[in-house]
Every structure is written in structure tokens, then in C-alpha cells.
Design a protein that fits this description.
single chain; alpha/beta; Rossmann fold; 11 helices; 6 strands; 46% helix
Length: 237
Amino acid sequence: MDVPLLFSPRIGAKPLPELDVVLLVGLTGVGKTSFARELGWPLLPNRRWLVDHYVLPRLGANPASLDRNERFELTARWRRQNPGGLAEALAAAYVEPVWPLVFDGLRGEEEVAYARRRFPRARFVVLEAPVRVRLERLLGRADAFDRARVNPGDEEQLDQLAAGVLDAEELKELLTRYPARELTEKLRIIATEQQNYHPDGPRQALAGCRRTLFVDTTVITPPQAARRVREWLEAGE
């Protein structure tokens, strides 16, 4: 965390919506963290921090006791009360005016649409990858944050959990390489996230927005993506 977010006015700090900022957009496993690391630019506290320190306290929840799916349930409640989702929380912040500033990250149509309206000077970098790729990245990254409750018998209903996320052949192939319990846990995270945030939502929210760059992280490496974004910003496209 390079640049702190403040939630009350301070000398020298300005409302974040008034500043130039790069907003990363993408679902779990698209590669936002690797990309942001390659950029090497000042980072605002990320989405996880914003949920923990701004959203969950206002919902009376303790982040330390929650798994990923419980967090999805609570952030869904937040969105029902605040349709702009995390973008509304971000818009309430003040920061020291430096450039470039990067926030990781936004997701979903409503959240991104709100940010498009509320952050007129923001640039949007939308990172995308197919669901199968995102799931395998999740399976391989060994982050303690990526935990979800697996109940007895859940592993026997993997086909139901995978409906709308993986086809039968993809699920069968993954089961030859990953333990059923681990696959169940990570698939539950991906499936629940997809129920809350449609993968195509950001494209709809940013249709016609010239302040947007879409990046397919299956065909470009993090260093290549970082170089492309630097060039895009320098060119003022």
C-alpha cells in the first residue's frame, strides 16, 4: 500500500473522484495483482482492504471470521444499499494528489458504471480471462484468503456447482489433476462470484468509453500488459 486512503478531509488531500486514477477492473484470477506489480506505480489500498476497512465495519461484520463466499454475501448486501458497490466507497475517499495512482480493483456492471460517471478523469484497464483459466489460476496460487466452506457431500455435487461455469468434459479433466475437495472450494468461489458479477458486465458499462483499455491476460504476459498500458496512457488514447 503506497498511498493511503482517507475518509475525512485532510490538509493536502483531495477527493479521489477529482484526480487522475487508473482503475483496474476484473474478476478473481484475471491477473490484477501480477499486472499491478509489473506497473510499479503507486497503489491505493486494494479492494480487499476497502471491504475490510470501509464496507464490513458499516455492516457490523468482522472480516477475520469470514470466508470468500460470506464476504460475497455481505458485499451483495452493501450493493443493495449502495448500488455503486465498492465504487461508492472509493468515491468517499481523499488522497494525496500524485500521479499515477492505481486502484485494484472494480468488478461488475453496476460498480463500473457508477465509477464511469463518478470518476470523470479515471482510466479503466479491464483485465479479462476465460473462467477455466481463472479457476486454474485460483487453484494454483495458494492464497490463504481463497477459502470457502465445503460441507459434507458437496464434493459429490460438483456437477451442479459447475453448471454455468464449466462443461462436463472440463470438470472431468480438472478432477484428474486436483483433489475433489480443493476443486470444490475454488469452484464455489468462482461460481458465487459469477452469480454476483457477470463477466461481461464491465464491457457493457464501458461501451463507447474512450478512457478504457481491454487486456486479454491469456495472450499477453504481465510485463507486456504493463508496457501496453504505459504506452496507452502516454499516448493519451
